[in-house]
Fold this sequence. Notes:
The strands form three sheets. The chain has a four-stranded mixed β-sheet. It has two domains: 133 residues, Endonuclease/exonuclease/phosphatase (Deoxyribonuclease I, Chain A), CATH 3.60.10; 64 residues. Strand 5 and strand 6 form a beta hairpin. By secondary structure, the protein is an alpha+beta fold. Helices cover 43% and strands 19% of the residues. The protein has seven helices and nine strands, in the order E-H-E-H-E-H-E-H-E-E-E-H-E-E-H-H. This is Endonuclease/exonuclease/phosphatase domain-containing protein.
Amino acid sequence: MLLVIIYAPNDNQNQFYKDLHEKIVEMEQDNVCIVGDLNVVVDIKKDYFSNVKNKKKRKILPRSFFNMTHELNLIDQWRRINLGKKEFTFYSNPHKSWSRLDLVWMNTELGNQLETIEIMSNVWADHNPLKIIWKGRKRKSRRWIFNPQILKEKECVEKIKKEMEFFFKENIVGQTSLQNTWDTAKAVLRRLVTVYTVKRNRERWQNQNKLQE
């Protein structure tokens, strides 16, 4: 499989995709997957939303892109799997608009091996990540890793500080070893961060849905 990860320019995309097409053909690979931020949408009606009057018209992909996908038999796999859905990966604050800019294009043979593609919640970046799950792949349990970006959010920091001070006050004395206390503290911290993140993301999605109504 040839995996192509791109960040498309805002301007002169027609030439960009002509050059990309030539490079991919030179690689002589049957299975091709293009993933990345294309900076424009496929379909204005399906992949773009703004409730601002006299809104600036969003750009769409150039003809050279569709010439490339047609010749290489590439399909917008998220749209294929989520045919009737309208979800987005980027919010523009200046334009008060939502767009689906982050895409996965694969040929049919690769696409048939997919179980699903999901647009995930935005935790700290300005784009929503995509999760791709392949058929027959067992989901492995992952070790939790603290995301330091959460410390930029004052509300979360204050909550962690308050809860952890209480925890150590109640658990630092007694017969429990320091190692057990520390292991338990990490579990408490994980729960605090997880609950906060889920609540925060739910509120963001609810606010986004209200604006779309």
